[in-house]
Amino acid sequence: MEVDDLFQVGDSIVYPMHGAGTIKAIEEREIAGKKQQYYVIKMLTSNMQVMIPTGKIVSSNIRPVTDIIALKHLLYIFQHGESDGLLPWKQRFKVNTDKIKTGKIQEGAEVVRDLMRMKKEKELNTSEKKMLDNAHEFLISELRLIKGITENQIKSFC
């Protein structure tokens, strides 16, 4: 698959476990004696730059930012979806980690929703507090890149 078929400079993307970013360049670099093309991605949440070989972009689960049409469905799930609060915390932590690793906005929104609901009922443990903070930061970073989203729609995820 050609680089041109995937992403272009200026595209907004989501990198699982890292959040949203923007492709700043496609550069050829020689690393460890091997020349290859890399996507240079500026991550929004951590203010860092990531380089990913173009040949590994598909296996990294990097995807385009969600569009405004999918946002309506996401809002409904966020506000009305069911939470499974009966799992023991270790199992819940694993399920939530697996959801975040998918990089899918819906899965990340479910983690945020469920942990926010739990937080209203009881104190979260340190691991889940950190997970909630990270998942929420990743979610908001993607929402801010969706073309046509309003500030009120973003706030409905807070």
TrEMBL record:
GO biological process: one example: rRNA transcription
Species in which this protein is naturally found: Sediminibacillus halophilus
Any Pfam family matching the protein: CarD_C
Domain CarD-like/TRCF RNAP-interacting: 6-116
Positions of transmembrane segments: none
Protein's name according to its UniProt entry: CarD family transcriptional regulator
Organism domain of life: Bacteria
UniProt cross-references to InterPro entries, sorted A to Z: CarD-like/TRCF_RID, CarD-like/TRCF_RID_sf, CarD-like_C, CarD-like_regulator, CarD_C
